[in-house]
Amino acid sequence: ECLNEVLKDMDKDISGSVREVV
Predict the structure, then answer these.
(1) Cα separation of 14 and 20, whole Å?
(2) What whole-number distance in Å separates Cα of residue 1 and Cα of residue 15?
(3) How far apart are the first and last CA of the chain?
(4) How much is the pTM?
(5) What does the pLDDT look like over 1-22, one tens digit per residue?
(6) How far out from the chain centre does Cα 3 lie?
């Protein structure tokens, strides 16, 4: 997985709904 994608996913999750990313 690309770090950029992971960061984007985390940002999106935080923006939408807080969820834990493993």
Answers:
(1) 9
(2) 21
(3) 12
(4) 0.33
(5) 588 888 888 787 776 655 565 5
(6) 10
